[in-house]
Amino acid sequence: MPPSEGPAPDPTVHDGLSAHDWLEAEILSGRLPPGSRIVLDALAERRSVTPSEMREAAIQLSNDGLAFLDAGASLRVAPVSLADLRDLTATRIVVEKEVLRSSILAADADWEARVRAAFGELTAVEALLGDNPRAHLDRWERCNGEFHGALVAACPLRRLMRFNRLLYKQHERYRRLVLVQRTTPRDVHAEHLALFEAAMARDVETACAVLEEHIARTVDMLANGIRDGSWFGAPAGLP
Questions:
Q1: Distance CA 74, CA 76 (A)
Q2: Is 37 strand, coil or helix?
Q3: How far apart are the two ends of the chain, measured CA to CA in Å?
Q4: How many CB atoms sit inside 10 A of residue 93's CB?
Q5: Cβ neighbours of 233 (radius 10 Å)
Q6: CA 160, 213, 154, 61 torsion: positive or negative?
Q7: 5 within some domain
Q8: Whether residues 100 and 33 fall in one domain
Q9: Contacts of 93 (CB under 8 A, 6+ apart)
Q10: Dihedral (C-alpha) 16, 35, 235, 182: value to the nearest 10 degrees?
Q11: Are residues 59 and 26 in the same domain?
Q12: Do the Cβ atoms of 233 and 30 come closer than 8 Å?
């Protein structure tokens, strides 16, 4: 009997991820590029779930700003633009500074232990970036997210925390789209070290100032990457 046509099942289908989390990872990583159509049947077959489960996941992600319905009612990955990046970054700075401030003010020994552990993991992977940054991108993104998450973990404002996580994910997509194709001489570990030291000293104002500069430097790098087309799938003449 000839082999059936269609996409092969995803080898990571037993990784424990829900359809939502898997589809989110495909979008954040850029494996589903900005503006591309989300072909529900094909993706559902790859993931060994039903098309309705995949559609529900895509609709949930549209609520998070990672997907949208086009004029023909097809689900697509959200596009990217410099205007959106700037708006996202300005919003993230306002929100993350506030949750960081609240977290440091409410910090305890458990918070400090979590931040120290996350910073240790991040330091270890950042020591490897000089050799081949792209080879360690997935691990770096995970450790970077855990470090930023640990810093704000003591914030008691649950709704603001949820919004902060959403903004972080949207920013992650821009980072991955550019960094997978681009290296930079920027010393990101020095920035993380300054943020870590200010947080450990419970110096709220310095920590917030360092965080703002850290995020702003990231957006400058990403904007340059989008302008010169050094991210895969970049359309010509992106405004």
A1: 6
A2: strand
A3: 52
A4: 19
A5: 15
A6: positive
A7: no
A8: no
A9: 211, 212, 215, 216
A10: -20
A11: yes
A12: yes
- Kindly tell me if the per-residue pLDDT of 211 is higher than 90: yes
At 78-88, the pLDDT tens digits run 998 888 989 99
Specify the 3-state DSSP secondary structure of 171: helix
pLDDT of residue 7: 38
Residues 156 and 40 in one domain: no
pLDDT value, residue 4: 35
For residue 234, being part of any structural domain is answered with: no
Q: What's at 82, amino acid-wise?
A: L
Identity of residue 139: R
Contact residues for 54 (Cβ-Cβ < 8 A; gap 6+): 19, 23, 40, 43, 44, 47
**Whole-number percent of the chain with pLDDT over 70:** 82
Confidence of residue 13 (pLDDT cuts 50, 70, 90): very low
**Angle subtended by helix axes 188-200 and 204-227, to nearest 10:** 160
Q: Total domain count for the chain?
A: 2
